[in-house]
Design a protein that fits this description.
It is a single chain. With 349 residues, the protein is of the alpha/beta class. It contains eleven helices and 13 strands. The strands form three sheets. Strands 2-8-7-6-5-3-4 form a seven-stranded mixed beta sheet, sandwiched between helices. 48% of the residues are buried.
Amino acid sequence: MHKHGGDIYSHPAVVDFSANINYRGMPKEVERAAMEGIRQCGHYPDPSHTKLREAIAEREQVRPEQVICGNGAAELIFSLVLAKKPKRALIPAPTFYEYEQALHSVGCEIRRYYLKEEHMFGFCPDFLGEVTEEVDLVFLCNPNNPTGLSVQPEFLHQILKRCEGCDTLLVVDECFQDFLEEPVSMKPFLNESENLFLLRAFTKMYALAGLRLGYGLCGSPKLLWKIREHRQPWCVSAPAQTAGIAAARDVGFALESRREIGEERERLKEELIKSGFYVLDSKANYLFFKGPVNLYERCLEQGFLIRDCRNYEGLSPGWFRIAVRSPKENDALLEVLRQEGRMQWQKQL
């Protein structure tokens, strides 16, 4: 079984740096809306998610009929793959595991494009050549998980054009876009391409991981219809719907969080580099870095749960990911990491 971040149930009484959730927590208005949704649980939730889709459409500046909601982005990934039933798919490595898991569930052949350390885990122009007429679907995570790196808009547009020419569906996971100072969303192409599906979620920015609420944006009515035909009708609970409506309307919280987390990310990154770690230039709410192979265990002994990335396809032991949390929590983890960094340098000497 693939291990994810956020396993506080196996490791109680830890500070969780392994899951990339906004440390500020759920906004009060969103929490109140979720409680109102609980009071509605004597009835079935709206299977069409009408008010929720309207609120999301207004926030994203798209049409409500271009919005589809789900029980987290992961549920939409599985529903999309089940509806599409691709025979061959292309995914980068390392990246979010659920793409591979969903593709395996329909017996899809997976082709991987390995992101290499010598290229700073970035995409090279040769990726375009990997998209052929034999490939039915391409998954891209932007910014990528676990690296936190983004694909530049010009290259994304080239990938989309290549997919259109090969009649390949391009699925871009934009779940961490809200944390970018300069978003690189593919939304402008929704109205002109039926080969594009965007994944979004309230999970990370609005701390709704336990409620489970994601959504997709797509310009293809046929594809959206097929997805709805391959899922159960009440996939989004009443509390998730009411919370999602409130979150969609609370843009100010996201802007303030982006600023605070961005400042803290840069400070945390700088301190990690000073301590001797090799750190990638992540732009999301987490950092990806290289350290001693036993760093996960050493941090856990000190009460900190970090993400050991060795089970990501394409990564060797020694790569880790940590969420950006509050300044106080970050300082406490930095003390542990500084000690480990010093020990690493001493061993090299």
